[in-house]
Amino acid sequence: MSIEHTVAVFERQATACAELGSPLYAALLRHAATDIRDGGPCAAAAAGHEDVAGPQAVALRLMGGVHALVLTGRAPALAVHYPSAGGSTDPARPDAAWPAFRQVVAENLPWVRDWLTRPPQTNEVGRSNLLIAGLLHTLGERRMPVRLLELGSSAGLNQLADLFHCSSPGYSCGPADSPVQLPDAWRDAPPVWLPARAEPLTFVERRGCDLTPIDPRSADGSLALRAYVWADQPARTARLEGALRLAAEVPTRVEAMGAGEFLAGAEVAEGALTVVWHSIMRQYVPAEEWARVEAELARLAASSSPTAPFVHIAFEPRRIEGAHRFVLAVRDGEGPVEVLAEAVPHGLPAWPAEPGWKLG
Predict the structure, then answer these.
(1) I need a labelling partner for 205 at 20 to 30 A (CA). Which of 39, 85, 94, 197 fits?
(2) Angle at the Cα of 145 (from 140 to 150), degrees rounded to 5?
(3) Cβ distance 155 to 141 under 8 Å?
């Protein structure tokens, strides 16, 4: 691919950051795109990654590598512009951070280039808002313990979704004193299929898979997770910090393997609801591997029964009526796929899907 392709990737990510409430990253990525075109330090950092497609998020890898330097105290001049490190962003001039950012990249090229070899690992816990809603919908009146199998788990933080507190007017789910607070979960009124106050859920198993799992209890793992949260979004940072505290107390398990292999060893269980869920990971899975995943999901669905039910819950980008949307879809056993809700990519807020939506 050409340099112009890389520039376009950075410009698209800048637009996405602006739309998702990160003026700092939007400004820095626009400058980085120009710097790549002009052959500056960002071009040297990205060299050899020109053929990385947009879904692989090379721009976010660069931002994560620089953020890690800020968080570890190795970029003090840039830290004054990063709220995550105690600095501040001037809303009128978010690009004031650019000279310091460019200098950090120039002075730390080996570090940044190494970071560009890593897949993005946000493990955004705000997406649990959708996952837990899908679970509440499919549980309905069934009072069964839950066996959770998560695909693309990263650090496994969303395996703790039942311990987060999701809330909005007319809706509450999870412990009110949870260190992870997900307020304003729903735009306007919550869906009619959600209980106003959800009963506590019982999870008897929490495990998942990821090709490159992160240990959230380790210093390196927690740094990687923090680095991939956008530095001027304190609410997301607070959610992550709370989830890391929970992860230190509640055991989860993430196996280093692909989703197809992971599901091949899965079975339903009598007396429990077996749930496979995932969020914003499908785009990273090659088509051949996803075909294997779908075959395993179909096998599990076919083995579902009233006493050993199976549910598939997904919060993923999909084409709906010709538009690109981030939607919550569920399938109970071999029943039809239901599109229940739509949300912003980070999960908050969500809103009910339009009646009759079908996945494209």
Answers:
(1) 197
(2) 90
(3) no
Give the dihedral sign, CA 34/38/41/44.
positive
Q: What is the pTM of this model?
A: 0.92
Q: Which helix (H) or strand (E) holds 151?
A: strand 146-151
SS3 232: coil
- Residue 120 and residue 168 in contact, taking contact as beta carbons nearer than 8 Å: no
**Tokens 């009233």 — which residue?**
306
Helix (H) or strand (E) holding 131: helix 128-139
Helix axis angle for 234-247 and 219-227, nearest 10°, is 160
Give the span between the Cα atoms of 10 and 277, in whole angstroms.
30
At residue 251, what are phi and psi to the nearest 5 degrees? -70, 135
Q: What is the pLDDT of residues 314-335, one digit of tens each?
A: 999 998 877 889 999 999 999 9
pLDDT band at 29 (very low <50, low <70, confident <90, very high): very high
Task: Check if the beta carbon of residue 131 is closer than 8 Å to that of residue 224.
Answer: no
Q: What is the mean pLDDT of the chain?
A: 93
Q: Is 69 helix (H, G, I), strand (E, B) or coil?
A: helix
**C-alpha torsion sign, points 349, 177, 156, 230:** positive
User: Residue with structure tokens 């090659």?
Assistant: 286
